[in-house]
Design goal:
The chain is mostly helical. Helix content is 43%, strand content 0%.
């Protein structure tokens, strides 16, 4: 990254200072906890609504929790295209389908109850 930034700056007749500061820790999805959450989500939502996502290179403050105890970070869809609720997070047009709040509470409760049984 440093070399690339310096090369771009030099190519445009400039220069750059490149400092890497400590940031968030990496996120750990515990294998057992993740499998339990996956199975619970399939049972609660139906397999057709549960999808594996590609890995992403983003930061997430949930990573701090995953450093301390077995964790699973998952994403819950909150859009509703027919109602025009489909803007991305952290945008000025962000909105949430209120039904997804009910779904998220139910799913989190279902996962927690399944964790207690394991």
């Amino acid at each position: 990254m440093k070399k690339m930034a310096e090369s771009i700056a030099e190519g445009m007749g400039g220069s750059c200072d490149f400092d890497i500061h400590d940031g968030y820790p990496f996120l750990i999805n515990d294998e057992k906890t993740t499998q339990l959450a996956w199975d619970a989500a399939n049972d609660f939502l139906g397999e057709e609504k549960v999808h594996a996502l590609d890995m992403r290179m983003t930061s997430e403050d949930f990573a701090y929790y995953s450093q301390e105890m077995p964790s699973c970070f998952y994403r819950l869809g909150i859009s509703n295209t027919p109602q025009g609720i489909n803007s991305g997070l952290h945008t000025s047009t962000f909105d949430i389908d209120n039904e997804s709040l009910r779904t998220s509470i139910g799913l989190m409760t279902f996962i927690a109850l399944n964790l207690l049984k394991s």
